Structures are given as C-alpha cells and as structure tokens.
Amino acid sequence: MSNDRSYLDQLQDYYAQHRVLPSYATMAGLLGLKSKSSVAALVARLKLQDFLEVTPDKRLKPGGKFFERLLADSVRAGFPSPANDTQHDMLTIDEYLVERPSQTVLVTVKGDSMIDAGIHPGDIVAVEKKPAANVGDIVVAIVDNEFTLKYLEREKGQFVLRPANPAYPIIRPTGSLEIFGVVVGLVRKYK
Questions:
Q1: What is the SS3 assignment for the chain?
Q2: What range defines the domain where residue 177 resides?
C-alpha cells in the first residue's frame, strides 16, 4: 500500500502522454507488478480512493481525484524560510479555477495590453461567461464585433475598457459594448 502513491504518479504520467489509462497487462509491466491479481488489487484500492473509475464498458478512466496535485505550503518570494515536510492538501486546478464548468471557457491571450495586470501573451485565462460585470473586473468584451480583454471601467456615466499598458488607449465604444465574460483565473506555462 505504501507504493500506491508512486504507482498513481506513474499512471498519471502515462495518462498525460497517451490520454488513456493502460490495460491491466500494460499496467503490470509499467509498474513492475508480477501478477494480474496485484494489478487488480491496486486498481481496487485506487477506485476506493476515487483516483480511478470504471466506464460502463468496463474500461478504466480517471476518477474525481485523479487530477489532484499536491498543494505545498506557501513559499516566500522574499527571504528564504525553513522547509518542512508536513502533510499537504491536494488540489485540482479545474476545481480551483472553475466554479461553473458549463459557463467557463479558456482563452489564450494575444497581445500585451494587459501586461501591467500580470496577463502576458500566451497566458490562458479562465473566463466565466456572463452578460454583466462589475466596474474593475477584467472582462472579455465584444466591441464592434471584435473581442478584447480589458478592465471594465466607468467614465462620465459610460462604460469604457481600460488596458493595463500605457502604450494602449482606453476604448470608449461608440457602438455596442457587450460583455462576453469575466476573467476568474489565469494559467501560465513557463518553458
């Protein structure tokens, strides 16, 4: 049982590479297990912990906790602090960023008009689709049939879209302004 975390890590890596879970025979070879009964026992334990599930046609699929990641203690960005090896919580990125899955889309950012808000080209923002937003929200708006990512602000009683980069002008719509959604999170991958 103490190896279950290691086995799960290997299954997660396999899934990330192949987008399917391995068969029992492949799993035995991958994990170094000697018998099909050892694989079956491991699968049963992982199912009990909600890491694996079985589809109606009896195939393995990721369970509700399969995509959880270790949430380590906070790390200081200033002076170093002592490291500790305590028990950590688990976190699923989707669960953390997405409150309403049916209303949330991921959008890749192009351009640098929001760079001073910490939103860079290539970032992926989680946007909850809704037709209204509050002043100060970062929104995806539709202005003259074009999408843009900006702060929603009010100026002289009218809504405007303010960039977070002084190289860009404030957008003062002369035609229609439609809110597509509000940014609720951001993901950045460092290379």
A1: CCCHHHHHHHHHHHHHHHCCCCCHHHHHHHHCCCCHHHHHHHHHHHHHCCCEEECCCCCEEECCCCCCEEECCCCCCCCCCCCCCCCCEEECHHHHHCCCHHHEEEEECCCCCCHHHCCCCCCEEEEEECCCCCCCCEEEEEECCEEEEEEEEEECCEEEEECCCCCCCCECCCCCEEEEEEEEEEECCCC
A2: 101-187
